[in-house]
Specification:
This protein is mostly helical. It has a domain at about 60-89. The chain has helices spanning about 5-20, 60-89. The longest helix is centred in the last third of the chain and has 28 residues, at about 60-89. The chain is flat. The two termini are about 15 Å apart.
């Protein structure tokens, strides 16, 4: 592969990743359906009543540890590539 094509391939890969991430759904603290709370009226999906979302979901510790591990491995690969690139020139 010629050196001139590398920036084009890098830009294509980055653009593909950004397009793929565009379709990842976003997390909203309020539900799509309104809810009744005591004497209050139902909250519709675009209004904010100032309360936080419930946090009683699944344990996310394994995901945080796994993400940190993958981030560290990726940083190691970048460091290794930089060192090898420095020796080649």
């Amino acid at each position: 592969m010629s050196v001139a094509r590398r920036p084009l391939l890098t830009a294509t890969a980055a653009g593909t990743l950004l397009c793929a991430l565009w379709f990842v759904p976003s997390a909203n603290a309020t539900g799509e359906q309104g809810r009744a709370d005591g004497g209050r009226t139902a909250v519709t999906a675009g209004q904010d009543d100032g309360r936080l979302a419930e946090t009683g979901g699944p344990d996310t510790t394994p995901y945080l540890l796994g993400g940190t591990l993958f981030l560290g491995v990726g940083a190691g690969f970048v460091t290794l590539a930089m060192r090898r690139g420095g020796r080649a020139s």
